[in-house]
């Protein structure tokens, strides 16, 4: 059996994260499903690098980690996200 870790969705939604007040949740595009709310998240890496990520409220934590993997290059299964309200 392969010992490599495979990311598994926890089903946790990104909707628990704060939204940008400038975004209007009533606007819908063809890529959105009804009820999707656009979110702009700010991610600060341990290296103090700050990244702005745009996602939707229906995305899972795994979806967010995969997007960060594509942006910064760290494997999604090695990313740990910590929420802080500011």
Automatic annotation (TrEMBL):
Ubiquitin-like domain segment(s): 39-86
Superkingdom as given in the UniProt entry: Eukaryota
Leader sequence segment: none
Residue numbers spanned by region Disordered: 1-36
Protein name per Swiss-Prot or TrEMBL: Ubiquitin-like domain-containing protein
InterPro entries: Ubiquitin-like_dom, Ubiquitin-like_domsf
Transmembrane segments: none
Gene3D superfamilies named among the record's database cross-references: Phosphatidylinositol 3-kinase Catalytic Subunit, Chain A, domain 1
Coiled coil spans: none
Pfam families in UniProt: ubiquitin
Compositional bias segments (type: Polar residues): 1-12
């Amino acid at each position: 059996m392969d010992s490599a870790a495979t990311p598994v969705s926890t089903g946790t939604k990104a909707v628990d994260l704060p939204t940008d007040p400038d975004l209007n949740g009533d606007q819908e595009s063809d890529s959105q499903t009804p009820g999707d709310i656009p979110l702009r998240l700010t991610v600060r890496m341990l290296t103090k690098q700050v990244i702005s990520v745009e996602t939707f409220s229906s995305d899972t934590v795994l979806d967010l980690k995969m997007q960060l993997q594509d942006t910064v290059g760290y494997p999604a299964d090695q990313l740990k996200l910590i929420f802080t309200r500011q």
